[in-house]
Amino acid sequence: EVARMGKTPARCPECGSLVRPGVVWFGESLPEAAIARAQTFSAEAEVFFSAGTSSTVAPASSLPYMAKGNGAYVVEINPEETPLSSVADERVAAGAHEVFPKLLQVIQKLRQRVR
Fold it and tell me: H/E element holding 67?
């Protein structure tokens, strides 16, 4: 995909090899420590945002359900319906790239009011 966009991946300054991006590829497992942290945060969340995901790939797909089970208000942001749609407290039928800039503006306004 990067090649199609006309961009070249970064190269290691030491050996010139392509640098691996900080992502988990399909078929790879998430680091166990990252999963454990995500589960802890999900279990303690008051509000949980699920954005731009099919909500079908484990273990990440279980996180909003974990949050909901512990009383969190679950908001799904996705242009398409997913298995989470019927469980979420709110569903925003739009892309995350549209919603989050607006949400950030609202949060900034709320912070100013609280001060």
Answer: helix 63-69
Residues contacting residue 53 through CB under 8 Å, at least 6 positions apart: 60, 61, 78, 82
What's this model's pTM, rounded to 2 decimal places? 0.75
> For the sheet containing 73-77, what is the strand order?
47-51, 73-77, 90-92
Which residues partner with 8 through β-bridges? Answer: none
Residue of 4, 108, 93, 107 lying closest to 51 (CA atoms): 93
Closest CA to 48 of 80, 71, 72, 69: 72
Does the bond joining 13 to the residue before it have cis omega, within 30 degrees of 0?
no
Secondary-structure class of domain 32-114 per CATH: alpha beta
Q: Tell me the per-residue pLDDT of 18-65, one tens digit each, with 9 for 90 and over.
A: 888 877 787 888 889 999 999 999 999 999 999 989 898 889 999 999
49/85 Cα distance (integer angstroms): 12
- Cis peptide upstream of residue 59 (ω within 30 degrees of 0): yes
CB 51 within 8 A of CB 66: no
